[in-house]
Amino acid sequence: MHWTCILISFCWLCPTLVHAGKVLVFPVDGSHWVNMNVIIQELHLRGHQVSVVRSTDSWYIKESSPFYTSITLDMESGFDEDFLTAFIAELLDIQKGGMSVWKRFKLEMELAKKNSEVQKKQSKLIEGLFENKELIQSLKDAEYDLVLTDPATPTGAILAQYLKLPLVFNVRWTSQGEGHFSIAPSPLSYVPIVGSELSDKMSFFERLLNVLIFGFAEHQIAQYLLPHYENLIEKYFGPDTDYLSMFQADLWLMRVDFVFEFPRPTMPNVIYMGGFQCKPAKPLPQHLEDFVQSSGEHGVILMSLGTLIGELPPDLAEAITAAFAKLPQKVIWRYKGDRPGTLGNNTLLVDWMPQSDLLGHPKIKLFVAHGGTNGVQEAIYHGVPILGLPLVFDQHDNLLRIKERGAGKVIDVFTMNEDIFFQGIMEVLTDPSYGVNMQRLSRLHRDQPIKPLDNALFWIEFVMRHKGAAHLRTESYKLPWYSYHSIDVILFLAAVVLVILSTFALLIKCLCSMFLRTKHKRD
Amino acid sequence: MHWTCILISFCWLCPTLVHAGKVLVFPVDGSHWVNMNVIIQELHLRGHQVSVVRSTDSWYIKESSPFYTSITLDMESGFDEDFLTAFIAELLDIQKGGMSVWKRFKLEMELAKKNSEVQKKQSKLIEGLFENKELIQSLKDAEYDLVLTDPATPTGAILAQYLKLPLVFNVRWTSQGEGHFSIAPSPLSYVPIVGSELSDKMSFFERLLNVLIFGFAEHQIAQYLLPHYENLIEKYFGPDTDYLSMFQADLWLMRVDFVFEFPRPTMPNVIYMGGFQCKPAKPLPQHLEDFVQSSGEHGVILMSLGTLIGELPPDLAEAITAAFAKLPQKVIWRYKGDRPGTLGNNTLLVDWMPQSDLLGHPKIKLFVAHGGTNGVQEAIYHGVPILGLPLVFDQHDNLLRIKERGAGKVIDVFTMNEDIFFQGIMEVLTDPSYGVNMQRLSRLHRDQPIKPLDNALFWIEFVMRHKGAAHLRTESYKLPWYSYHSIDVILFLAAVVLVILSTFALLIKCLCSMFLRTKHKRD
């Protein structure tokens, strides 16, 4: 498989125009860092200098790297591996026996509270940074070209506004939800709210649900997010600055494309780079290649539930390996828990695997996945159908997009047993439509005039060259909500109509009474 | 000047994937054809077969061409050069002495009536085509890959829907107004209506005006456009098909970009190809080169009021040449009228000129233009500031965009005299900000990852390869307007709240009366 492209005759390197820039990166820890690191490496490769702000308690973000220099803050970042793994374990416990509305609500509350804690620590962190006069001065002196940040917390954006630097987002979620909702008109009639598990084709009651979830989400933000930042923003930016204005970015590099995401309104400064992290498969390590080749004509099934879920409750793990054991295929499962008793000879448990290289191997027939964005994008890139076992966060939504396109099947991991899992695997393996549809998605995804990563880098460098991209930013940010929605104009027009009608009614009344009086007199 | 670009390492020609396609083009005559022809020539160059539908009375569209084969309909197209030139002459007369609200209204009515006549003839033309069973069968048999059309009239789109072929628009205006308004959310608070002469920064009363003009435009469409097509669409597509559904295109190739247009919401299937027709300047014919070089350090002023305005009322032409005669610059004016008596030695009147090549000449200091889209895009591409004399159509709006960016000045041609014109020229020539701003626009426009024409062709070929681009089309088209705006959901929620409140009130009332009765009894 390779990128379809056209002969772009004007492609030459213009060395005088390639500006070796300085980029200040304020990343979000955890799986978000994996994405950011791809861009950082590419920036380094193109000769730019990258500085990364991290905390002493950083989890994924290493202090030393050949690709960047780090600025380590002696503060808590709020991103906490232990908490997250504990949360996932609790989640598996909460959801056992299937999901009810109550369990769902409890889960959302749990997540909101966790998010609130993270945001509180992030807000303290940025305040600490602002009060570190020496560090702030050194950041000013460094004359960065731009701040590159992930707006899952607003911290990086606030720093960019404070330093008055151009701002580029590497974004899937902002602290207020899915990236588009902060910037592009999002008619709730066909744009599903994140976490709603709704598609872009909604019945009346689904549209109603979408509106209600939107209201709930707005309430959650007001309750759990804004209080941590409002005082901070007032203190450093003055009383007239609101939270949303911090998000006036020059560019939004969105980690989706419309092969994956439902089509929806967008904005001129949104660049779609979905699948930017995907690369052609490299050869496998010999032991894996041997194992894969040993599968013969049956091929191989790959399973991974992401980095956060190293192990499962024993009965669930047993059910999975028992189902696998019945298959003629070979199976590679990234699993760190105890070896299940029902493990078949055909199944290889591994601590880590070169997931993308395996997905690109022609022997791979099926990907059993939790539905994290990276894994789903890699499956699309390599054209491997998915059996989805979503757990939390955006995983249900990600897999819904695959299911809607007929490129995968989703089963509920919390009510699943050996039989259900086995039937699920058999269905995706034997019904050719899953593979055909996923390969169609793969062809569409690869058929772009420019590779997503190259496009993202072009636009980051565009911001360096032109010191921002103000000409792509709409005026919408500057309007209060009632003006944005023309509510003031509508009320004014309604008042005018009312005045005209009242005047008219008054006139009629006066005329009538005059007429009656005259008549009365005459009588 | 040249295109800034990045080294796109994956750019190779994939001959197996380049599909020699068959494209059915249904163009709009007049200046729109000039644009369409650029794409047709490029399609031909890339090995695609192009068929163009034209009428026997076609005005710009020639029957024979090395780039396409034509399908000539023995019917009136409605596009009428004589009418348009007469209209422009009348316009110059109407507007003389400046524009008043009444003159403006009269002009709009005049235009609406002319448009209505064109639409009526276009509707007859498409009906005639549908009734020509032999021709329709031959179009079906030809197995075109797609229909490429300009939606300034809906005819080409209706033909595509009838033939069930993928549909690509080459668009600036649809029959209902500016292209975006048919497809993308357009908040009237910062998206000005075409013809409003408003920018994206509006005061309260400008926003009010924008809403009123929107209402007026909707009324005009209902009155002058829909009646010509409603019966036709019902006859050939059934009673449940509405006019707007004809516009469900796979792609909208928009003839603007956000260097020219105010930033606004857009859609995944909108491709911006503003300036696609622009090319580096070729050497001038010797006599022109000699004339240009003779200007020395003062440079040259270029003037053109477009192909429709060959001549002006004599007093206006005299004022213009008299002002030119005072300048040390040389002037080239594309003018077909009688030679004005005040014509200076420095001014060359020409019937035709290689406008783009002249604009790209380093001696050119200023472009005096009427503000047609092509001329404005060429001025941006070559970085030449504009003195605008807008007359009609989108010319005021086009020039407003240049003026807002500080890259040109606009004067009212109808109240203008020699002095005003001279002062206007001097201002743009002597204030360096005009040139600096236009060169900034030029740099921004040229700094794209892929040339606009290459991008447009990539996406046309994408539609050929994938038999459409359904994955980029939103669900919004399928919703009735009240569902699209969630009005049904809001009414339902309001009803629920009302029922709850009424029940509550009733309950209170019952309790009160029970309490009173008990009290009464006890007393």
TrEMBL record, chains A, B:
UniProt cross-references to PROSITE patterns, sorted A to Z: UDPGT
Pfam families: UDPGT
Signal sequence interval, chain numbering: 1-20
Main location: membrane
Any GO molecular function: glucuronosyltransferase activity
Gene3D superfamilies (UniProt xref): Glycogen Phosphorylase B (3.40.50.2000)
Domain of life: Eukaryota
Family: Belongs to the UDP-glycosyltransferase family.
Protein name: UDP-glucuronosyltransferase
Organism: Astatotilapia calliptera (Eastern happy)
